[in-house]
TrEMBL record:
Family: Belongs to the short-chain dehydrogenases/reductases (SDR) family.
Protein name: dTDP-4-dehydrorhamnose reductase
Keyword terms of this UniProt record: Oxidoreductase
Record GO terms (molecular function): oxidoreductase activity
Lineage, highest ranks first: Bacteria, Bacillati, Actinomycetota, Actinomycetes, Kitasatosporales
Nucleotide-binding found in the keyword field: no
Signal peptide start-end: none
């Protein structure tokens, strides 16, 4: 398959790129500052340009999304808007613009996270954005068939525990390799409207 991979140079994107490439897929790596194509998908105009440059693809995979982390009393309306734009709306727009640009039975795989169901202090913006993406996936699945859409919703990565482990007390962690396998399941499988929590 020809796969457009958003956030390909990040921690998760690198693991997903490695796994999908090893399975024989052709990967078009997209990043803001690195990769085969350099676009910022938080800008709808750049998303459109990215699709024009990429041409027809079989799958769109997203591993990117930025949100601010602050106590709720320190959050501003702009912070919440930034979270919605950076994690939810950018991915929603990948689908909105991508439906006419991917194969008839192509797929979208988006990224959410554990904070949609297990909130932490300072994580209200992430919880909001993740929840929005997950709700969108369920709703979009019934409209875009036979194209498919799923979301991967991991907890903290084992490889990132030294940086973020204290924010996720008692939640456990997941190896990047295991998360990459779930992306394979979404891309190569037949399910749609799923939120794969791990």
């Amino acid at each position: 398959m020809k796969i457009l991979l958003i956030g390909a140079t990040g921690t998760l994107g690198t693991a997903v790129h490695k796994e999908l490439s090893a399975r024989g897929h052709e990967i078009l790596a997209v990043g803001r500052t690195g990769g085969d194509l350099r676009y910022d998908v938080t800008d709808p105009a750049q998303t459109a340009a990215m699709y024009e440059c990429a041409g027809r693809v079989d799958a769109v995979v997203s591993t990117a999304g930025d949100v601010p982390f602050k106590p709720v009393t320190e959050m501003t309306p702009e912070d919440y808007l930034a979270a919605f734009q950076g994690k939810a709306l950018s991915q929603i727009d990948l689908v909105r613009q991508g439906v006419t640009r991917i194969a008839e039975r192509g797929s979208f795989t988006l990224i959410t996270g554990v904070l949609a169901r297990e909130p932490i202090p300072t994580g209200t913006a992430a919880s909001m954005a993740n929840g929005a993406v997950e709700a969108f996936v369920c709703a979009a699945a019934i409209e875009i068939a036979p194209q498919r859409i799923n979301a991967v919703s991991p907890t903290v990565f084992t490889e990132s525990l030294s940086y973020y482990g204290n924010y996720f007390p008692g939640m456990g962690s997941v190896d990047l390799a295991d998360v990459a396998q779930v992306y394979v399941r979404s891309v190569e499988g037949a399910q749609t409207g799923q939120v794969y929590a791990l």
